[in-house]
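Quick log. Single chain, no ligands specified.
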Amino acid sequence: MKGIKAFKIGQFHSNERKLSVLVQAFYSAWMLAFLFEGQILYSFSALYRFDPTILVASNVAANYIGMVSCGIFIKTKRAAKRLLISTYLFSIAVSVLFFFKPSISWMIGTVVASLLAGASIAAWGFFLKSGTPKNERIKTVADLLIISNILMIGISLVTVYISPQTGLLISMVLLMLAVLFALNLPDGQPIPDIKEQQKEQYNISSLIFFLGIFIFVITIVSGLMYQVVKPAFRHLEWITSWYWAIPYIIALILIRNLPKRVDRTYLLFVAIAMIATSFVSFLALGRDVKSYLIINTLMLGACGIFDLFWWSILGEMIDLHRNPATVFGVGLSANILGILVGGVVANAVGSGLLNLPEPALLALILLSVSLVLLPPLNKHLVGLLKNRTYLSSFSKLSDEEQAVEIDRTATYGQLSDREMQVVSLILKGKTNKEIAANLFITENTVKYFVKSIYEKFNVHNRTELLMLLYEERIKSSSFEIQK
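-> predicted structure:
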């Protein structure tokens, strides 16, 4: 029976995983090529001679709102599926508007479509969670980003070399395919795991907050630089229309296929070095094809590393919350906010509204600041993830296994009986107030015992304590395996 159950779960994951990747990739290709400074939108703006700046900024802002608010309205997988299908159908309708002359309906349609786009990306988290095992999610999001960008490049080439109408028509075909595939997405759950059902749902607001800062710090720099580089090389449309995403795709492919034992965190600092070099190159080099290839390769390669890093981190975090749309939406919204702020600052500096250094130099200054901020942010982020991982794994243990774990911890830290009781409740995710209620003592007394526990383990807070216990447990498990 266990073998049959494992087979069914694996088959469910495999089918849903493929469907969900194709559905979102087809839709994202349309979105990238059209809504947000895509080649289709810019080609239509050139054809009808209008400035798309306000339209693009409105679309990005609406996308941000959609991401942040999705979790409030979408609470089930069935609702997520309905949202995806509705979004794709509405996007087809909006696309039809662009076969007619410009009107206010263009702005209204694209803004609403952008709002739905943000919400649908957040809602896709439901299918990532149920369709892909946790240790495979980095590959799933990499496949999504790779396929959607390859399709977007194809649409952009058609748009530039044939016509924007033809490019838009092809993107609409992809939307229709997205609808057909989405109709086949399962809206139920696979055979449930009893322990998974019993897992405690933790408050991860602090985790999302710190990840949001992490994403925002990097993305505002990228957004600022993007607004500088793209206009500077607009005269090279024959290459900028398609090459800009190539380094991004290559970076995704390389990271996707790295061995699991490789610590991908170090790649963040490689990416920071790459984007810093691209800034310096932009200031030092000319505006010819060779310069563009160097600058864009460094900048977009770094963006590929950044994007896959936080998409995969969010893929891990969705197991810590009962609503994946909330985690995915709020987490990725920091990316959109950074791009929006970076773009606004770049335009303000370029127009003289802000008396600041030129955008490229300003981006380099902000990058230097991010180099100072990222190491502590990264350390805290990793600590919180290990914290949650340890609490989650502890909650899955049986009462007997929990007792053994608590005894091992008490022996390791030479804890008193009362300290042992306090640690056991800390491992269950209890606050000082809850520990005091459980042990019928005052909260100040709990703080006294917690301070004593910290001193014995030579740590300063709960995150450090749980990180230490997590690492000791891993070492202990490895030792048992070796024996």
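The domain at 1-191 is CATH 1.20.1250.20 (Growth Hormone; Chain: A;).
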